[in-house]
């Protein structure tokens, strides 16, 4: 298990203080890691800047970059079980998620963008100027800062890293201090795959390390996934410095269950949408809009299904719901549950930290509220935990306006037997992604990102290639 930082192709403990990363299933310390100082960040950026112009990287042919990324994907796949167990130990997600979703998704993204490395083209443009040839080319940006969250540490890192490398950039990565371990292990894999020294650097630590990276004058692009509050600060700083920035932020996804939907059939999909990774998903369905005539039935069935899920350590293969990632997050969830009860919502199941043999870990019982009002805080603010809210509606015409009555716009779900109704609602809802009659799935080819306070820019697909390149116009006289 790697615990040092990776700077300029070397593993270093830095010169400052340390911090601990804990196993959320037990509360025990897994490892102590270096808290990156400003000088550590400076060293990482300097290494990335030097590597960006080096013959080993800048002169690497697109087919060679592709081979390096394909090799990294193969090595990650070979060590998939090791990565999955480490992700589960450090973050808490059940092995069914880390081994069945997170690691395979990371492998898929490395291969997908390895394929793009040889297909990044410009265009020739017919101009109304005589005797001139005009063409464009896409070029890498330079040193990119990648700041990643604690809910899916490995997977979301690769969403950023794979297109950044495929397009020829160099990077400095700052993983969330709660979950840094798989990021460091991935750096080892990239080194083994043949990434030249300085192309990929990892600094560990908390907010101060992130601030130093965002404000560094030699970092030309920041890609951040995390809270809306922090994203606003990063966006403001990047704007002042005229840096390029991509922000994938919070969410409060509505799930619209039309009156014609089969309530029994949609329970399972909505349960997965809302409680995947203990609700620590920015696209988690947390606001369920249900026809008033079926709302009580839906809420009771959802509460029964949620309450029957097996809570336990992620390394136990029978676990369905693991711990939340930190004590801080556990306490925040409890505060929101208390607010919901005080506001008059009906607590149907859960609502408290697990006790007994799970008492030392950060386990929160899956929680369902019925009779929730549109203006209640539990219906408006991102909780980022296993807390679901059922909101009755009377008139189908109010669905889209109520679903849109939020500052967020990352994701939404629509459930209806009428495909016309489903698609009309999908068009009306302001969200970056809408799933119709299905739980959340992701693919490297499908753009991902939010509207409104859920962020700016897109990851995945060709959109990520655009996010890590800039266009140059080249004019040539033919006279």
Automatic annotation (TrEMBL):
It holds the Pfam family Aldedh. Residues 11-474 form the Aldehyde dehydrogenase domain. GO terms for molecular function: oxidoreductase activity. InterPro entries: Ald_DH/histidinol_DH, Ald_DH_C, Ald_DH_CS_CYS, Ald_DH_CS_GLU, Ald_DH_N, Aldehyde_DH_dom. The active site is at 248. Keywords: Oxidoreductase. Signal peptide: none annotated. Its EC number is 1.2.1.-. It is an enzyme of class 1 (oxidoreductase). PANTHER family: ALDEHYDE DEHYDROGENASE-RELATED. Belongs to the aldehyde dehydrogenase family. This is Aldehyde dehydrogenase family protein. It comes from Saccharopolyspora ipomoeae.
